[in-house]
Amino acid sequence: MFSLNPNLTQQAFLIGNERTPVFVVDNFMRDYSDAIDEASKLSYASDKESVGAYYPGIRAPVGTEYGMSLLRHTQAIFYKIFQVPNQLTMFPQNGSYSLITKAENDMDSLQCIPHFDNNNTFSFAMLHYLNEGDFGGTGFYRHKPTGFENITAGRVSDYLKAAQNYIDTHGQPEKRYFTESTEHYELLHNVAYKPNRLVIYPSTILHSAFIDNPQRDVCNDPKTGRLSANFFIEFK
User: What is the arrangement of strands in the sheet containing 20-26, beginning at the earlier edge strand?
Assistant: First the structure.
């Protein structure tokens, strides 16, 4: 169950001035239909405690069998590609099926700009795109006023001050999904959505769901919407 596809392809990108690794695997699993079936039967939460402050949608917990299989298949990647020290151990934080559901007019300000998941050096996010369809992918960004691409612990204060100063000077961000470059953030790379594509990146990097067609991507039906499985992982 949930075995690797022998015909998978994989590629690592180094993006931006900070040469941040982003790892992409296509045709990742031989058969992931059980994950889609599982996702279609769950109850989804929309409260910020369950979903997170930045995600403009709904989430439901991933089942143990699928989640553990995915983590087992990817563990070696973190040590090889992301240079995690061998003495550190993987600690999964959570895994959720996710759907983009917010209309742009209903989005919070923080959902209208790129964000970082946390500032721990050896923390990572992992996406597995699931449903068939032509949906938006994931964009990675540079904060122009500071030049920061990764918001590490030593940068958080300077970044937040600079970002707030920009907003105080230029006004609140437009209520829309963030995609292409603006005067505030520069798009570094966009990883397109593709069914059975796995994307892994550090939690510190500024990123956003690249929703360039909300009419297509905003959907609360796990059978037809932009369904992904999202995992957050830390090494200690």
Answer: 9-15, 20-26, 198-202, 123-129, 228-235, 90-100, 57-61
